[in-house]
Amino acid sequence: MKRLFAILFALTLYLYSYGQKPGVVAPDSAASDTVVKLLHVLKSATFDGQTYPLVELDEITVVAEAPRDVRFNYRRHARLVYNVRRVYPYALIVRDEFGRINRTLEMMPDERARDNFLRQYEKDLFKTYEGDIRKLTFTQGKILIKLIDRETQATSYELIRDYRGKFAATFWQSIARIFGSDLRANYEPAGDDYLIELIVRDIEAGRL
Question: What pLDDT is recorded for position 100?
Fold first, then answer.
């Protein structure tokens, strides 16, 4: 099954960073030189001739009420957060590579050139990512399948079918089903994947 996840990643194919808010450290004039104090420098804005402090607040996302069948369990949620953070960067890579592949294929002169490109591209992806993808657990692989649908607006089955043909897609779907996965799985942010969506939004906002 881990081989399937590696192949799926290679067929369907940034690192995200967290910004840190700069602070200003200045010496405390009333203390010794070794004591520092954290100061917050506020921006200012002028309205009707008056100058006021300007504070930029972090964006707050308001989401719908959780589905009735969603029950919060701290330990399970902490594990889910770990798993989503583990695979979300790969979903972003798939999204970006998906766009790059399409742009490249559009410039290919014929079907033979496109097939040669895809075969070489697949080999290069295996060399780069297969070792990391093989380390994913079954649960992480299932989450990755869902997040690929979120980021590309296409299921993993559809991506494999479009790039490698219906036979390949059907074959890997049958293998996935043996191990309890489904390459046709759709991402449902307001349903079964409600908690995953909350975690992804926190990642995107820099809160995780």
Answer: 83
